[in-house]
Amino acid sequence: MSDENVLLQVEDAAALGRRAAERIGYSAAEASVITEHLVDSELCGYPALGLTRILTIAEDPRTREPRQPIRTLHETAVSALLDGGNYVGVYAVHHAARVAIDKAQANGFALVGMHNAFLSCRNAYYVEMIARAGYACIHTACSQPVVAPFGGAAPAFGTNPIAFGLPSDPDPLIFDMGTSAVMNGDVVLARRLGRLLPEGAAIDAEGRPTRDPAAALAGSILAFGGYKGSGLALMVQALGLLGGAALTRGQVQDFAFLFVVFAPDLLMPATELKHQVSELCQRVRETPTQPGVDTIRIPSERAFREREARRRTGISLPRPIYDRLNAL
Q1: 132: left (phi over 0), alpha (psi -120 to 50) or beta
Q2: What number of CA atoms fall less than 13 Å from residue 314's CA on the CB side?
Q3: What's 35's DSSP letter?
Q4: How confident is the model at residue 2 (pLDDT cuts 50, 70, 90)?
Q5: CB-neighbour burial class of residue 327 (10 A; exposed 0-12, middle 13-18, buried 19+)
Q6: Mean pLDDT in residue range 131-146
Q7: Could you give phi then psi for residue 235, rounded to 5 degrees?
């Protein structure tokens, strides 16, 4: 241990997460699903989407509201619309991803939407599950407003990530991006740790640029890339309507999740696709670099390397997060 961080072995970090998740009302089985996801985020180098999210879940008013079993509202051989039962998305969206995999295994294609769930955390986690099962995937997630549209001074979108996955060897190709300049989890973690946000990431409640995370939470995060990111955020929010966003509270700006999953061999042999994706990534790596650039990065490879390294070395938690999790 140091004054600022606590180094935990993976098993100890998982045990801490499970205890904390159970203390805020989840069963042992539910806490296990939630914690496995959050520990994986820590391993892959995304601390804002790691164990600190248990604190965010604990603080969310929806955690104190009743939960019901996840149920299917509408279903065909290749589709399902799911009600998440007011479960946290880290648990409910995991269930939706499993439904998508099962339907794709049976029929080669799956379209699965979910609403009445919140805080799904790292969407690459679900996409990797699906890609490692051998399927291509597009996944979108929208939420209640925290991001201002281009030129706006108040929030209209969620951070609205979109993720893609393709099977490949030795690991799938995964790309997961938020449509905001920073993720809301990053802002919350910065507030917890007393850190400033990057320049150009947020505005306060008066529409003025700010680096203060508390002011940003009272104001808005900005979309990445100006009008392009804002337009993409709008489309992800609109796709959430297919997942039933407006069914939870009658609001078109709410949480919803969508999976489009299909077997590569609907179009070409799966082994051939894997080979071609691997070759494409290698061609990209071999691109000549600009001055001062050492290597071309392929999405998801850094996370996979971090995961393997941290499984050996352990997970470093900021002391304030560790102490607060223990306090639960």
Answers
A1: alpha
A2: 10
A3: H
A4: very low
A5: exposed
A6: 98
A7: -65, -40
Closest listed residue to residue 128, CA positions, set 97, 172, 178: 172
Among candidates 46, 47, 109, 125, which has minimal Cα distance to 77? 109
Q: Both tokens of residue 248? A: 């939870």
Confidence check: pLDDT of 320 > 90: yes
How do 109-118 and 79-88 pair as beta strands?
A: parallel
Q: What angle do CA 298, 178, 190 make, to 5 degrees?
A: 105
Residue 286 tokens, joined: 């071999």
Token output for 137: 């995937």
pLDDT digits (tens, 9 = 90+) for 60-70: 999 999 999 99
**pTM > 0.85:** yes
Is the N-terminal amide bond of 170 cis, ω within 30° of 0?
yes
C-alpha angle with apex 69: 64 to 72, nearest 5 degrees? 130
Token representation of residue 92: 């409910």
The dihedral over CA atoms of 268, 269, 274, 278, expressed in degrees to the nearest 10, equals -60
The span from the CA of 278 to the CA of 319, in Å, is 40
Backbone angles phi, psi at 151, to 5 degrees: 85, -5
Q: Cβ distance 157 to 145 under 8 Å? A: yes
**pLDDT for residue 143 is more than 70:** yes
For the segment 229-280, what is each residue's pLDDT rounded down to a tens digit? 999 999 999 999 999 999 999 999 999 999 999 999 999 999 999 999 999 9
